[in-house]
From TrEMBL:
GO terms for biological process: intracellular phosphate ion homeostasis; negative regulation of phosphate metabolic process. InterPro entries: PhoU (IPR028366), PhoU-like_sf (IPR038078), PhoU_dom (IPR026022). It comes from the Bacteria. It comes from Halarcobacter mediterraneus. SUPFAM superfamilies: PhoU-like. Belongs to the PhoU family. It holds the Pfam family PhoU. This is PhoU family transcriptional regulator. Residues 18-102, 132-209 form the PhoU domain. Transmembrane segments: none annotated.
């Protein structure tokens, strides 16, 4: 395989990983805020969508340039198509992560039952970010067995986020029946936590795309 082609692929993987790690770092700040029960810490979540969008466009342009210059076949072509879709998934994950930090900080008032909310919100955020981080680890992985292992780990964490969100939704609905006057705040908290479930969903999509790149299959189902 041509050296310039390999260099381009490595550059694409590196830049995709950098975006993913930036989003994951922002989520870790959010996790610390929840663990400390200090929503003011969420102000430190600084995800510039403009900056990330610019980086994503640069990656897409490099992918298109590589496709045009080297006309990859089979597995290499699947990989390039997957990368094009992954940049979009990462932008969506970034938007959800940023929206969570902003909306949760505004909605999480002292009048709410913090213990009941954080009991499931903390593990929800932890699983959501672990799913994203593991999916990003798959980008630079070449070993098919390790890709499969990490893919399964992403699916496990994504399933956890679904279960945890269902639990916290049930808890919050109970709290609302006891404190109707706080229903708006509780619903806004619930809405913000839904963003974490969506981050996990984007991680699952990224993992599926990377499996498609490695082994093929039906892209419509990824």
């Amino acid at each position: 395989m041509l050296k310039p082609y390999i260099e381009n692929i490595n550059k694409i993987k590196e830049e995709i990983t950098n975006i993913g790690e930036e989003i994951s770092h922002a989520n870790k700040i959010s996790l610390s805020a929840l663990k400390e029960n200090d929503s003011s810490m969420l102000k430190d979540v600084n995800l510039s969508m403009k900056k990330l969008s610019s980086k994503s466009t640069e990656i897409d342009n490099l992918i298109v340039k590589t496709l045009a210059l080297y006309s990859p076949e089979a597995k290499d072509l699947r990989e390039m198509v997957s990368f094009l879709k992954i940049t979009n998934e990462l932008m969506r994950a970034a938007a959800y992560s940023k929206a969570f930090a902003k909306s949760f900080r505004k909605a999480f008032s002292p009048e709410l039952d913090a213990e009941a909310i954080l009991e499931y919100a903390i593990p929800l955020l932890k699983s959501s970010n672990l799913a994203l981080y593991t999916a990003i680890e798959m980008v630079k992985e070449d070993d098919e067995k390790l890709i499969e292992e990490k893919f399964n780990r992403v699916l496990v964490e994504d399933s956890k986020t679904d279960d945890l969100y269902a639990m916290i939704e049930k808890n919050i609905l109970k709290l609302i029946t006891k404190n109707i006057e706080l229903s708006k705040d509780y619903f806004e908290v619930l809405s913000s936590l839904r963003k974490l479930e969506k981050v996990s969903g984007r991680a699952s999509s990224i993992a599926n795309l990377l499996v498609f790149a490695e082994v093929g299959g039906d892209l419509e189902n990824t």
